[in-house]
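Weekly puzzle thread! Below is a chain. First person to post its structure in token form gets bragging rights.
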Amino acid sequence: MRVLHLIDGQRAGGPGRDEGLTLAACGAVVRGAPGEHGVIILGAGDLACGAGALPGRGVVPAPLGKSLLATRGLRRVLLDRQPEVVHAWSLTALAAARRAGPEFRRAVSIADGAAPVTPGVRALNSARCGVVGAAMRQDLVAAGARAERITVLPFLGAGSAVSRTEVRDHLGLAPDDVAVAQLGAGPYAGATRFVFLVALLAEAGSPATALVSAGAPDLARAIRFYSGSSRLFRLRVVRDAAAALSAADLAVYEGGGHGPMHSHPARPGAAAPHVARALALGVPVVAPAWAGRDLGLPSEIQAGCLGQNALPTELARVALPLVRDDRVRARWAEAARAWAARACDDARFAAAVSGLWQP
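Winning reply:
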């Protein structure tokens, strides 16, 4: 079977976006699913460079930075390659495929927790869809998708992680330095808010190094905040979320609104792929309680790593024991790996995605 994968390269830095998670998911399918695979990036940029290891890679320019305007170039690619299935990795990429080649069979997988968008949801009803986590399925149904066309996929495994030693050496981190990475993105989880959380840890007597992705939309503001702070902690900018996780001792997922009343997010489905990916890599995750509801986490992880809400003060309170004591971190890291060994597997993920391609 000839399968052409479409990845929207213009969405880097958007709400809930983790381009490394999408590339990891696509790579798992390319390696584990039978067939002849090719990959097309809609738009150029850093995401296109990160996809260099994927086979048959090509780039279709996106006029005005809008992937939906790449119809003409994508049409030429489809006619040239004649895939049996066009597999999109976002709803925007699916909508572009529908416009460029309505006669081609289509499927879509959403692996990074990105928000539902229109016209992508309308295009979804003409394709088979796979999503990571049951809450993401509920989000799409609420946005207008038909429930019977959506399959819940297994969580991704650790895959081929970036070298921890290499990244930490590049960032100048000593073996005993505690590095904290941010998971996810979006209006309630900007880099500035995350850096403020790490500053709270430092003020409590437990300095750490904040790892922020270079694609964070408010990175400049976060750097200004850090420059005007007490400098009791350190800030390091990493190339992407995958590199941050590989170097991290702890990860934080916020993703909820401001204020103690925000105990529920607008979109709970966005959390599960990010949290599961970190746990599969053996990185303990501090998050609001709702972020773990879709994962079936054991009670010890829920009690030790999940807070009541997404306030930086609440998440800093939960994170403090993990930053202070490497034995506590090691215990939660072992619990994370044990959960991931049962729940996360690249081979099962690839098999489930390839099932979407059947007529």
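Puzzle host: Confirmed. Bonus trivia for everyone else. The chain is about 40% helix and 15% strand.
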